[in-house]
């Protein structure tokens, strides 16, 4: 005949927990009819490997849905009470069955259980409050990033369209007055680009600080030192090519970031964002290098930014030496940024392939 296993119990305001001491249990059958729970299973219990069963008539009604899980050492059964409350005992009969004992690992009295409920409610309330704060921060951050990218997109779009229209209307003549017609907007956009370094440094956006810093500092060096400080450079055609290449990259990059603020994607724009830099970025660096090389004789003549030496030596160090060093650093930066952009592209499209599969 079937044997009775050892059963341990505990309760909460809404649930009853039963722990059946049955090792490697198989063919488990647990049912609840009205207030009676019936258990049957094959396993290794107090009387060895046998079939074990028991039944319990609960003190108050319970729900018919019952859940259980079997481990190597025991079977855990959870029964939900029909009405929330604390029972003075488990079974209808006052005398406890001999196979039933309190589960002291989970045992709590009513006050402990109520304290546990209050703690859970406090944790839930704190979690909700923190989520509301995070949502507020996320929405504020999203609005900030969207407005920033929108302003930059409008600025570089104006530059690109203006230069394109002037090129069609005035032809080669437009190459010589680019600085006078475009520089104010370019100054604004490149000064504003310093925000991207701060965003990366403070974790507002997930990107590398060093590649962002190299790009922003490099462009501002060309714009303010090479073009802005030398009037002789204002009429050089190289200004047109530098500005045009910069704006061609940015009118793709910033709309991509704008859509990303709302977790939206346009496949064509995504492909352009991770592809157009391959020809344009090296061309931009070459144009910047040409501008630096053209400015070296001008700095030698004007002595601008020259470093004075003591009178005993009677001379000064030309700023052109700094520019020679900068040329080397420029191509080092090209390698660093190119690797960074290539890894971004590879990671992006590899992820897309995985999702497609």
UniProtKB/TrEMBL annotation:
SUPFAM superfamilies registered for this protein in UniProt: HSP20-like chaperones
Name this protein carries in UniProt: Very-long-chain (3R)-3-hydroxyacyl-CoA dehydratase
Known pathway: Lipid metabolism; fatty acid biosynthesis
Keywords: Coiled coil, Endoplasmic reticulum, Fatty acid biosynthesis, Fatty acid metabolism, Lipid biosynthesis, Lipid metabolism, Lyase, Membrane, Transmembrane, Transmembrane helix
Protein task: Catalyzes the third of the four reactions of the long-chain fatty acids elongation cycle. This endoplasmic reticulum-bound enzymatic process, allows the addition of two carbons to the chain of long- and very long-chain fatty acids/VLCFAs per cycle. This enzyme catalyzes the dehydration of the 3-hydroxyacyl-CoA intermediate into trans-2,3-enoyl-CoA, within each cycle of fatty acid elongation. Thereby, it participates to the production of VLCFAs of different chain lengths that are involved in multiple biological processes as precursors of membrane lipids and lipid mediators.
Keyword Lipid metabolism listed: yes
GO molecular function annotations of the record: very-long-chain (3R)-3-hydroxyacyl-CoA dehydratase activity
GO biological process: fatty acid elongation; sphingolipid biosynthetic process; very long-chain fatty acid biosynthetic process
Family note: Belongs to the p23/wos2 family.
Organism phylogeny: Eukaryota, Metazoa, Chordata, Craniata, Vertebrata
InterPro entries recorded: CS_dom (IPR007052), HSP20-like_chaperone (IPR008978), Tyr_Pase-like_PTPLA (IPR007482)
Record has Lipid metabolism as a keyword: yes
Organism of provenance: Cottoperca gobio (Frogmouth)
Catalytic activity: (3R)-hydroxyhexadecanoyl-CoA = (2E)-hexadecenoyl-CoA + H2O; a very-long-chain (3R)-3-hydroxyacyl-CoA = a very-long-chain (2E)-enoyl-CoA + H2O
Annotated TM spans: 143-165, 185-205, 212-230, 236-256, 276-299, 319-342
GO CC entries: endoplasmic reticulum membrane
Protein localization: Endoplasmic reticulum membrane
């Amino acid at each position: 005949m079937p044997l009775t296993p050892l059963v341990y119990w505990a309760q909460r305001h809404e649930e009853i927990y039963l722990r059946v001491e049955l090792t490697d249990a198989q063919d488990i059958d647990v049912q609840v009819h009205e207030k009676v729970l019936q258990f049957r299973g094959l396993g290794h219990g107090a009387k060895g490997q046998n079939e074990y069963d028991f039944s319990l008539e609960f003190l108050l009604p319970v729900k018919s849905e019952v859940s259980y899980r079997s481990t190597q050492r025991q079977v855990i059964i959870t029964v939900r009470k029909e009405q929330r409350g604390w029972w003075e005992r488990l079974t209808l009969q006052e005398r406890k069955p001999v196979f039933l004992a309190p589960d002291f690992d989970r045992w709590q009295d009513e006050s402990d259980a109520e304290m546990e409920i209050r703690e859970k409610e406090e944790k839930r309330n704190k979690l909700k409050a923190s989520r509301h704060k995070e949502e507020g921060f996320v929405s504020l951050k999203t609005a900030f990033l969207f407005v920033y990218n929108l302003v930059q997109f409008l600025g570089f779009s104006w530059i690109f369209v203006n230069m394109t229209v002037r090129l069609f209307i005035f032809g080669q003549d437009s190459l010589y007055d680019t600085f006078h017609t475009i520089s104010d907007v370019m100054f604004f956009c490149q000064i504003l680009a310093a925000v991207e370094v701060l965003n990366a440094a403070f974790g507002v956006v997930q990107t590398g600080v060093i590649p962002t810093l190299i790009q922003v500092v490099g462009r501002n060096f060309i714009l303010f030192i090479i073009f802005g400080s030398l009037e002789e450079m204002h009429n050089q055609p190289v200004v047109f090519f530098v500005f045009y290449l910069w704006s061609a990259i940015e009118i793709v990059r910033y709309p991509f970031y704008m859509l990303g603020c709302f977790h939206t994607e346009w496949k064509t724009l995504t492909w352009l964002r991770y592809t157009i830099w391959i020809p344009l970025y090296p061309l931009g660096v070459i144009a910047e290098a040409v501008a630096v090389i053209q400015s070296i004789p001008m700095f030698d003549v004007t002595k601008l930014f020259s470093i004075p030496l003591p009178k005993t030596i009677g001379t000064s160090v030309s700023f052109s030496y700094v520019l020679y060093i900068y040329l080397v650093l420029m191509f080092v930066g090209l390698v660093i940024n190119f690797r960074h952009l290539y890894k971004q592209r590879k990671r992006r499209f590899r992820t897309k392939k995985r999702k497609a599969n």
